[in-house]
């Protein structure tokens, strides 16, 4: 009824689309393609790729040969090989429609989600009774073992309350080396609950308060009544300043071992005297910018850039070694020193007078560089490290108190625009403080199956989510060792900007011990955190316990 000449009914349009794949071939092939019914089923999806899909979720070729199972080590012991090498979905031996429930294969997805690569690393280190202190904040930890983690589920109300009480009273729990029946051991379950506790300020349950760096997308769209209310912002900042000062006073009195200040621009780690091999209180800031460092200098705060200085020293040593082996006059060594961050010799003369131009009589013909350009050229090496791990700033001793006042009045500490506008920084602490709110890490156990030589075996995992602080990681290992009979592996996902906190905070010869027995940490955890950091700007990605000895990979 009066349709346009170009109008085609749906059946005709579908026939036209079926002819398109063969429009470049001969007419006979085209007619055959049009007459043949449209292919259906999974085989058609394998041949044609969805243009809106990414490379990760594109359909795989049906003819691809399945990967052979990973070979076991030469000794015949499958447990000696890296654990996640054998992780496979539990439904491989069954048809796809009869796959096992999703919960049984969650362990595979969890291990793939972690930032640590699934490529099999080499043996990370020789077995030791203790692993090094890791001052980075973990966002997720996945423990895996051949023993079940059912003992960590469904704690009784009395066990949960006892765990909270043990944390608040800093009660030291002594567990046997091996627990035969973890589900029937209330001391073990209470100690597990105790290890999950941390303290937070401010407490806004509807907002994710960690991490704060790069969190605009997760916070966007959430209710933020203070964004346009300056009076409310002042109240929040005043309350935050009281909590921040309370934490610092506890740190000075050695009643708080350390705490974190996490803002939208950078994070700060305050450590008490006696931790990280330093006999004075320290504060590490990462990442930083030239503007922040200049503001700290103007306030009289003395600081150092340990990672940058270490890199310069290492490059300078390598250049000196190359000079000794060279038979030339050492021109290559000079360029290495420049690459290490040292200013070029000509930089010192750039801001001088241009009298030599007048002597040549070309002072009016040559355009002189302005003062700003000269200054930027001289500071190019310092600007290049901005927002990188090498920009870590270390403040020591009484300068930490000056830093406290500087941060309270620092305008860049709180965002003035965006989803985090007016929101005070997040304070994270292992002990209670004024205005702090008790929080617990989220833990859940997942079961799965792992491929071993000759078939499959049951595998169990425990996932811990949240800001896993350094003391919490060590406390969890103290609990899991006896519960899992001295054998487990852990995949750790770190908040990358905080990995720079593993830089050395003191000279190796300093290493003075201070009495921190009243700081609320387990003595073994305190001994570990007192050691000098050895990880540099990296963090532990893999941690394994076997026969009650640790190996790790950073």
Automatic annotation (TrEMBL):
Keyword Transport appears in the UniProt entry: no
Biased amino acid composition, Basic and acidic residues: 310-320
Gene Ontology CC terms, in alphabetical order: nucleus
InterPro entries: Donson
GO biological process: nuclear DNA replication
Biased composition (Acidic residues): 339-352
Residue ranges of the region described as Disordered: 1-82, 310-355
Feature: compositional bias, Low complexity: 27-45, 72-82
Domain of life: Eukaryota
Keyword Nucleus attached: yes
Subcellular localization(s) per the UniProt record: Nucleus
This protein's UniProt keywords: Developmental protein, Nucleus
PANTHER family assigned: DOWNSTREAM NEIGHBOR OF SON (PTHR12972), PROTEIN DOWNSTREAM NEIGHBOR OF SON (PTHR12972:SF0)
Membership in a protein family: Belongs to the DONSON family.
Name under which the protein is recorded: DONS protein
